[in-house]
Structure formats: C-alpha cells, structure tokens
Design goal:
753 residues; single chain; 2 domains; Maltoporin, Chain A; 22-stranded antiparallel beta barrel; five-stranded mixed beta sheet; mainly beta; globular; Immunoglobulin-like
C-alpha cells in the first residue's frame, strides 16, 4: 500500500530534504522529502522503525504501524545539535545522506561544495575489512595500499598526495596514523574529504583528509559476540555490547573489545592484537549530551620488507621468482610492539536562543617499539644474496587535541544562514631514537636465519614538539532553497620545536602563520541533480631541515579548483558524484644547485583529474558501489639540479583506478537475510621513482563474500584477491619493491543476544 510520510518542524513548517528511513527486519526503504516535506513509500502492512534526520534538528526515531486505515504519517522534528563524531546519515544500504566532517554543521552531502566519500557501517559489515586501508579500496582518488603488504601502519594517498601524517583524523581531530593504527571493529564509518581542507582542520595535505569515526553508545540495546577464523591461522574473538542503562535512556554505554592471534602471508610475521574500548554517554535532554570515550590497544607484528626488483617486478632473475612469503630479516631479533591508549570527551549543548556549543577533546599516548633487519638490494655480483641492515626505531607520541566551536542557524527573508565559529588546538610531542648496523647477507631463495646482530650505531635521537592554534569562521547561506553559498576562512599559528641530541644538543624553532579559505556554491534542483564549484586552499609547515644559510623553510601551500555535480534523486535511493579538480602545490623542496646536500624551496607540483563515484540501494536488496578516478600528476617546477624530474609523474600514484562492488540480500522468504557480494578492482600503472624509470604494471583483483542469517546467528565469509594473483604493489627504487596482498579468506560466526 502507498504510505505518505510528512515531516514538519515545531512551527508546523515543512522540512525539505530530510532523510527518511523506514525499516522492518531486513527490508529498508529510504528517500529525501521534497518541497512539500513529504515522501511516499509502498509498504506492506506491519510495524516499522521510522528514522528521520535533517540538518539543524535532532534525529527522530519512532515505531509506526502501517495499515490501510493509516495512509498518512506525520513526524515533527525538534531542534537539535551538530555533533562532530556522529554521521548524520539515515541510510538504506551503502548510501550516505549527510556528514559533519565536510562542514562541521551536519550538512547534507549535496550541499557541501566538495567531493566526499563515505564507507558507512553497513558496507563495513558486508565487506568485513581487516584494516582501514582495505576498507578504502573502492574509494576513488585514494591509493589505499601505497607500500603493499604493511602490518605496522595505514599508508594512503589522496589525489596523489600522502595523507599519512597530517591527513588522518579521528572523530574530527588529528590522528597520527604513522604512530598508531585503528581497528575497523572500533569504527562506525570512514569518511574521505577530497582536496585542501585547512579552513576547518589547519595544517593538512592538499589532496584531502580521512576521518575515522569511533563507535558510540547506541540508543537501543545491542549485544553481540563474534568469532573469526581465516587464512594464516587467523583466530579472533570480539564483542560489541551497549545500550541504555536506565529506563529513560539518559545514560548509555558501549564496550567494544577483541583478542586476535594471527599470522600473515609473510613467514614469521604475526598480526596479534588486544583491544578494549569503553564509552559512556549522558543525554539528559534533546539539547544536551556528553560522551566519554576511551580505548587501549596492544599490537604485536613485524616490519614490512623490501625486496629487489629482479625476481619481483622483473622476471630476469636466473633463480626464478622470489616467493611472496619470503622473510629476509631475522625472526628471533626483530619485532614491532605498540601500546596505544586514549581518553577524551564530546560535549554538546543547544541554548534556548539557538546557539549550539560543541567541544571535542582527546589525549592519546602511543609507545612504539620497532626493530627490523631489512634488505638493501643484492650483493654486487650476486642475484640471490641480499645485503641487509639492522635498524632500531623506538618512538613515543603524546598528542592533545581540542576543538571548541559555536553554531547558529537563522533566517533573513529568503536567506538562511548557518554560521560556525571555532578554535582548535593540537599539541603533539614525539620522542624518537634509533640506530643501525650492517648484518650478514641472506640467500632469498634458501634463507638461513640466526646471523649475529652487531651493536647498533645511534643515528637518531631527537624530540619534536608540534603545536597548532587555529581560529575559523564559516557561513553557509541558502537562498530560496536552491542556491547554497559556502564561505570560510581560518588563521593558523603552527609552532615547531626540534631538539637533536646527537653529538651535542642543537635546537630549532619554527613559527609559521597562514590564512586559508574556502568558497563554494551549489545549485539544488528538484530533480536531485546539483552542480557545484569550489575554491579551497591548504598549508603544511616544512620542518626537519634548513637552507644552506641555516634559514627555516616556509610552509608549502596548496590550492584547488573543483567543479562537479552531485546527484541524489528523491525517488531513487542513490548518491552519485562526478567531479573534476586541479590542485597546485608550491614551496616544495628541491635540490639546491649551489649546495647539493641542501634544499631550496622553488619546487612546484600539480595534480588534476576526474573522479566518479556512485552508491545505490536498488530494489529487491541490491547495493552497488562503483568508482573511477583519473589522477594526472606532474612536477611543474624544480631547481637547475633536478631538471630531469620536470614533467614527471608522482611516484606511487596510479593514473587510473576503478572499482565495482555489488551486494545482494534476500528480502523475504525462508532465506531472508542471506546474501553476498562480489567486487572487482583495477589499479593502473604507476611510477616507482621521481624520474619515472621504474614502472609498476597495472593489476585487476577480485573480492567476494557470502553471509547467512539464522535466528540469532550470522555466518559470513569474505575473501580478497580471490584469484590469489601475485603482483607488485610498489617500488621506491631498484632495490626496494613490495608485493601486494595475496588471497585472504576470513570467516565469522556472530551471535546476537
């Protein structure tokens, strides 16, 4: 039967573009309201869970009864608040509607003049990725496996620019992904904001940012335990429980935990983890909420390994192909041990005059103890003996992050304003020490372990303190429900103190300040086809070195022009983005022609291209996620010493990438809830070095999954690289290549109670 759901505010005005979701068991229907505040579904009689979300209002969840005598249902929204770490996304399947990360105001995705990709909880559950990198493999413009098999950290590039150090955020606050590592079991969603975004987040790479959203206490009781087994002796047990503590739901909790013992495709390399993440929420009214979040994680693994191009990338080695599982280090000596812990809060209050004040804070400590024996290429004259270096790299990170902001929505005739102002602060202290020594060679084709490790000569001993203060202001202005203007500006003060304790203490102090901004416009149409244009800028301080004269370097600057169209029809549950972009970065370091051991700041680079992404929830249980990106990069200016690099492509940056994932769930009958997915990923050729003399061939990989639902149990099996194709993911030089991930199969049993 046809059911109309009409959404109003407390003043009885119709709410346009509210995200409406009606669910009953495995059947989910969703759409956006039109100018009349209504949306129509064809529903069979029964009881449904109705969820309605719109920017500026609190999420409304209620039970409704659908019967022929009740064809019209009205929902009244109450004023709400914008929370940084909760995705405003009532969705069906893989389709997102809104996000805070692109605006900090909970705006609908179609209203943000910038490309945003979201991997939501339903896609994460369907694919069951074991790393953040794996979850990003179908996202256009993102190179998720930059260095191939890597257990220590999540390395990634966005639109050709590294996002590892200053480009990864957690709950909207800076997160150092080259120190810590997040487990997907702790995440609600993953967002990728493309292009320069310093106006909201300070120092950042020009390619874009990744935001990892932590799970929060749920409104309804949720209890599940899960056991996983899989390739390489993977054994994992995890639990996710939470819900209201009291009858009125004023207090809510959540506890996520896991224990994992696992090997990997590389001999003698574990992937062990212990994780516990408690959180507690206080929600006394629709206007006030506070959440405290904590976690502790212990990891045990080993360093990734470097292999020569001969025998991996090139099939010219007389001894044959170097095995994918070869371990060229010393298993008894090396290890990577990491302990990371954090505690923080998220506080939100909506005052009676309409001002919404929000604050996020987190302190995180990471203790990383890593040492390895890695390859330096074949011994001269040999094509089997690998030269090796022992390397020790202990590091400690302490980071405080704070973001306080105020938001106000008001209207003046035909103009609606969403004004945002805020201040954020980052305090990151990194203590690093390290040493190295040569180790006897090893035969890659017949490895024998147990070589003595000589005393290491210390080559690193420093402490670096990075501080960032930023004040920002943004106004999103909507004219007659059709034109949306986004204007924002920010002033940053970045301070770096660097102490080098080798050979006597030396101290460097760097103080940078920079204004960045964003201006964009979106035209909203009733057909759901919404063109947009934006201009945005970014900056990154350049630290750790000086000119020949001892002067500090200026920050590198990025600017982007982006234009595109976002398509989200009312009657078809989908979200499609097509965009073109051009990014220029200046003040890039290049070799000093007068003093080759030093650098000058005359370099420039460019990245431009096309991105297409479509996510759709089709009828009868089908979900699709399709993507394509063309990223054309070039070095545009260099010093006289580096002229051979002029015009060359960025290394480790594929020109073309494409992906298509189809997921199906049975909607009715005996096998309701059963389903599976199949995906294909294509990664085009890339360069391995700045001179583009090493070319990495393209490759195509297949993924698949199957799941079954039986009463309180879920059974699921997922496989990546289904054909077990051997491929080289990257090379950074003739002696430094890395294989990509081999086939990995993970099965799970989940019990809901």
């Amino acid at each position: 039967m046809a059911v109309t759901i009409r959404v109003r505010d407390s003043d009885q005005a119709m709410v346009q573009r509210a995200a409406v979701e009606a669910s009953c068991g495995e059947r989910v229907f969703s759409a956006q309201t039109g100018a009349d505040g209504g949306v129509a579904f064809r529903l069979v009689p029964g009881r449904y869970r109705l969820s309605v979300v719109a920017p500026g209002f609190g999420q409304t969840v209620q039970e409704i009864a659908v019967d022929p005598a009740n064809p019209m249902i009205e929902v009244v929204l109450t004023p709400g608040s914008a929370s940084e770490t909760v995705n405003v996304s009532a969705d069906a399947g893989f389709v997102p509607f809104a996000s805070n990360f692109g605006s900090k105001t909970g705006s609908l995705l179609v209203e943000v003049p910038q490309s945003i990709s979201i991997i939501n909880q339903r896609e994460i559950q369907a694919r069951n990725p074991i790393t953040v990198n794996e979850a990003l493999r179908y996202t256009p413009g993102v190179e998720a496996d930059e260095y191939g098999v890597e257990q220590r950290q999540d390395w990634m590039k966005i639109r050709g620019f590294s996002a590892d150090t200053t480009g990864v955020f957690r709950d909207g606050m800076r997160w150092n992904s080259l120190a810590g590592k997040m487990d997907p079991a702790e995440l609600e969603s993953i967002e990728v904001l493309k292009g320069p975004s310093s106006v909201l987040y300070g120092q950042a790479p020009p390619g874009g940012l990744v935001n990892l959203t932590t799970k929060r206490p749920p409104d309804e009781t949720q209890r599940e335990i899960e056991v996983q087994v899989g390739s390489y002796d993977r054994r994992q047990a995890q639990a996710d429980v939470g819900g209201p503590i009291d009858r009125n739901g004023v207090w809510r909790y959540r506890l996520v935990g896991l224990v994992r013992d696992s090997g990997t495709q590389v001999i003698a390399t574990p992937d062990d983890r212990r994780l516990i993440a408690p959180s507690l929420a206080w929600h006394p009214s629709e206007r006030t909420s506070a959440t405290v979040l904590g976690d502790w994680q212990h990891d045990k693994t080993k360093w990734s390994q470097f292999l020569p191009a001969s025998g991996t990338l090139y099939h010219d080695n007389p001894n044959g192909i170097i095995p994918v599982d070869v371990f060229p280090g010393e298993p008894g000596w090396e290890h990577v041990l990491r302990d990371q812990a954090s505690i923080g809060h998220s506080i939100d209050h909506l005052f009676g005059d309409g001002w919404n004040v929000h604050q996020n804070y987190r302190f995180q400590h990471v203790n990383f103890q890593g040492r390895t024996v890695y390859g330096l290429g074949f011994v001269p004259g040999s094509e089997s003996l690998l030269s090796r270096l022992a390397y020790d790299y202990p590091q400690q990170n302490d980071i405080h992050t704070l973001d306080t902001r105020a938001l106000r929505r008001f209207a003046t005739r035909n103009w609606q304003h969403t004004v945002l102002g805020g201040y954020d602060y980052v305090h990151l202290n990194t203590r690093t020490a390290g040493g190295s020594a040569s180790v006897d060679p090893i035969d890659l084709f017949h490895p024998t372990y147990g070589a003595p490790i000589p005393p290491l000569a210390q080559d690193t001993n420093n402490n670096q303190l990075n501080q960032q203060h930023g004040a920002y202001l943004q106004d999103q202005v909507k004219f007659r429900q059709n034109l949306v203007f986004t204007l924002g500006g920010r002033e940053d003060w970045a301070i770096t103190d660097f102490d080098n304790y080798l050979g006597g203490t030396t101290f460097q102090h760097q103080n940078d300040s920079k204004f960045t901004g964003r201006a964009g416009v979106t035209y909203l149409t009733n057909a759901g086809i919404n063109p947009y244009y934006s201009y945005s800028t970014s900056f990154q301080p350049t630290t750790g070195s000086t000119t020949f004269d001892g002067n500090l370097f200026r920050p590198s600057l990025g600017r982007q022009h982006e234009a595109g169209v976002k398509i989200q029809p009312r009657t078809w549950n989908s979200f499609i983005t097509a965009s073109v972009f051009n990014i220029d970065q200046t003040n890039v370091l290049t070799t000093d022609p007068q003093h080759p051991l030093y650098s000058v700041q005359t370099g420039g680079v460019r990245s431009r291209g096309v991105e297409l992404e479509g996510v759709a929830n089709l009828s009868r249980g089908w979900n699709l996620h399709a993507s394509y990106s063309l990223v054309d990069t070039a070095i545009t200016s260099v010093s006289e010493t580096d002229t051979a690099q002029l015009g060359k492509r960025f290394p480790q940056t594929p020109r073309n990438q494409a992906g298509l994932l189809g997921d199906y769930t049975v909607q009715s009958g005996r096998f309701t809830g059963w389903g599976g997915n199949f995906g294909v990923r294509f990664v085009g050729w890339s360069a391995g070095d700045t001179l583009n003399t090493i070319l990495i061939p393209n490759y195509t990989l297949f993924d698949a999954g199957f799941r079954a639902h039986m009463r309180s149990f879920d059974l699921q099996v997922n496989a990546t690289n289904l054909g077990n194709r051997r491929y080289v993911a990257t090379c950074t030089g003739i002696s430094y290549c890395g294989y990509g991930y081999a086939r990995n199969v993970v099965g799970l049993v989940k019990y809901h109670f």
